[in-house]
Amino acid sequence: MRQVKGSRIWYAVAALCVVALLAGCSRDPSVRKQKYLESGERYYDKGQYREAAIQFQNAIQVDSKFAEAHYRLAKTAVKLEQWPGASQEFRNTIQIDPNHAAARLDFARMLLSFHAYGPAKEQLDWLTKNQPNNADVYLALAEYQEGANKDLAGAMAALEKGLKLDPNKSETYLSLGIVHVQGQQWAEAETDLKKAVELAPKSVEAVVTLGNFYQTRGRFPEAEQAYRQAIQAAPKDPDPRLSLAGLFMAENKPTEAEEFLRQSKKDFPDNSTGYCMLGNFYIAGNQIDKALTEYASLYRDHGNDPAVRKNYIQLLILKDRLDEAQKLNDEVLKSQPSDLEAQIYKAQIQMHAGKTNDAADTLENVLKNDPDNAIAHYQLGMAFGQMGNNNRAEAELRDAVRLQPAMVEAHRALAEIAIQQKDATMLAQEADQIMALQPAAADGYLWRGMAEIVRKQFSTAEHYISQSIEKDPKNPEAYIQLGNLRVAEGQLGEALKSYLQTLEQDPNSTDGLAGMATVYLAQKQPDKALAAVREHVASNPNNSGFHDLLGDLLRDQKKDLAGAEAEYKRAVDLNKNNVDAQINLGKARKLRGDLDGALQTFLAASHANPKEVSFYLLAGNVYENKEDWEHAKQMYQEALRLEPENPIASNDLAYVMLQQGGNVDVAFTMAQNARRQLPDNPDSADTLGWAFYHKHVYASAIGLFQEAVKKEPDNAVFNYHLGLAYAKNGQAALARQQLERVSKMKPNSSEVEELRRAVAQIKAQS
After folding, report:
1. What percent of the chain is predicted at pLDDT more than 70?
2. Are the C-beta atoms of residues 194 and 216 closer than 8 Å to each other?
3. Where does 131-169 have alpha helices with state H?
4. Whole-angstrom Cα distance, residue 429 to residue 432?
């Protein structure tokens, strides 16, 4: 009995040892991290990427230097389209294990997909040196040569080298076909693409690319056959279905495309790309209301899907449903305060709510944590644009396209800045980028045409504008630019036809009606211009822009200031945000000598449009006319708060400071800054001259005053300043000459009396 009892004790002890041994294994970090890695890989292989990411993160928590887990997490982030996270994890992998060739290659491929050629080249240089017999390296190198250097021959050479290493690699033939397409070698391209499909008949990428080739060549039945083959080969892959829907759109079958996607999404209840395809179709077609309805439904069913949540928040922002967008975004930030995408959405919501300064602060904080976040740079550029700071806006947008050259919206924003700055070279460059990135979009061709009009390259301008109209025949802006081109060419009859086409497309187009009026005025037919505008005002009595245009004609052609003022007031009453009408109304009142009325107009406009700098400048000018220097100074300071780089505000504030007896050195610096930005402006010459005068540098002051007077010989202030400078410089004859001129311009004025005293002082000193 005792022996049996002892054996039981032995078995119990043995069992405890086994439990302890197992427990010891479970606590072994090397075992735990490997289990997490393997679990993540199983999720990854099933397409359950969010679950895979959690397991890879668990492995990294066990061992922060676990390079393979970082690598797998990077690949998972790519699948989830979490690009900043993917980039960081690839970098982490390479930092931990510099010899991780697979991470370097996948990172290079991702960078190439975003046209980030510089960082991609760093990885490719290492790979070609350390992996010279890897055919995949030459595939990536060919993509770099074609994209970064536009070197088709170099790309071809890289691919040929890859084929020598692996002559049966479908992907290499696929890339060869694409390079031949770029070189418009259609027969060779088709041969290579067919070979790629022959070697890998179930490769969705190869079959879809062949279908894309047929589609671009207008061979739609063959394209459809290829896409359906890809769908059959990979029924659980949504991409071929998206390609087939794109084909239907190319065939101008939007209803068929929509219905196909509606049915297709049912086959992907657990695939984010699949169930989002209909909503993304609506977004791509700018059908925002349908997109919002679809994503509201998706959010109810897939609220934890980051892609769904992201697009839903974006759509809510676009529709100005800011409270709902903010509520959803706040939920994200509550659980993940460091989520950079959510921080960017927060900034967008702030911008839409008019809190532009807050948005800029939010975005600058994002960039402190992630300086290479292209989207944050883009949104910060948009924020600075709203603030009127075009220099900062352009700088941020340039950073965005440097980091992500394929970001077409950043190129569009840069094109808008180029139009504002009347920079034809910059506009042409950005238009070229847009055309390359979105060859089917009409706006790139239109902007390129606008640039060529400015350059007086009229035949080239017509080529691009015609392409724009071909891609979007119903865009009224294209016909406006065609009309502008005809005016520039002196073909006024053809210009009139184009402006009429504009009004056919959009009966409320102020630019189209203004174009018509411009043609009639050029033909010396002001009454016809007036009649045409009156006719359209009668047909569209609630069009604020039409009333504004009628006011211009009454003011300039009929010298009817009262009639013009009435039209401007009607335009403002119809649209409190019509900046041009408010400016014109104030100016009309000022011309009639009603300074108080003009001032009230500009102040009221500044309250209705608090971000519009023009109203503060104009109100400041009226205060100057009333010699109310303190209020003028306040207006110019507010303008500079909104637009710190605004040269007109700097110039006018400098002048007021000099009139008030303020700090001459500060005023001088401001005047210099304004002069640098406005080198041909007579006001900037006069203000800087006035600053030199107050610094007793009379010779420099005289040169600037002379320039101002030359450009505006009847400006009494410029002549008065020049006379004072001559007097202070001891040039009596010239000073007397200026006294006579100013006396005729402003007899019995304080300026005449002061200039007379200055001339008398020369005589007394001599």
Report:
1. 96
2. no
3. 135-148, 152-165
4. 5
Domains of the chain: 1-69 (no CATH), 646-766 (1.25.40.10)
pLDDT tens track for 335-394: 889 889 999 999 999 998 888 889 999 999 999 999 989 999 999 999 998 887 888 999
Tell me the torsion sign for CA atoms 288, 291, 293, 296.
negative
Contact 579/612 with Cβ under 8 angstroms?
A: yes
3-class state of residue 191 by DSSP: helix
Buried b (16+ CB within 10 A) or exposed e, 696-735: eebeebbebbbbbbeeeeebbbbbbbbbbbbbbbebeebb
Count the helix, strand and coil residues of the chain and give each as a percent rounded to the nearest 5: 80, 0, 20
pLDDT of residue 443: 93
How many Å is the Cα radius of gyration of the chain? 35
CA–CA gap between residue 555 and residue 584 (Å, rounded): 10
How far apart CA 24 and CA 126 sit, in angstroms, is 42
Q: Which one is predicted more confidently, 107 or 251?
A: 107
Amino acid at 189: A
- The span from the CA of 318 to the CA of 312, in Å, is 10
Q: Which of 76, 138, 147 is nearest to 111 (CA)?
A: 147
Q: How far apart are CA 766 and CA 752, in angstroms?
A: 21
- pLDDT, tens digit, 9 for 90 and up, residues 294-305: 999 999 999 889
Per-residue tokens: 2: 């005792």
- Spell out the long-range contacts of 467-476 with Cβ–Cβ below 8 A and sequence spacing 24 or more: 468/442, 468/443, 469/442, 471/440, 471/441, 471/442, 471/445, 472/442, 474/505, 475/442, 475/446, 475/505, 476/502, 476/503, 476/505, 476/506, 476/509, 476/511, 476/512
Distance CA 703, CA 126 (A): 61
d(CA 363, CA 359): 6
Write down the number of H helices and E strands in the chain.
45, 0
The burial of 509, by beta-carbon neighbours within 10 Å (0-12 exposed, 13-18 middle, 19 or more buried), is given as buried
Whether residue 263 has pLDDT greater than 60: yes
Residue whose entry in the numeric block shows the structure tokens 């479908």:
170
Other CB atoms within 10 Å distance of the CB of residue 627: 9
- Give the tens place of pLDDT for each residue, 198-210: 999 999 999 999 9
Quick one: which of 612, 609, 658, 614 has its CA closest to 633? 658
412: nearest Cα among 380, 440, 381, 444: 444
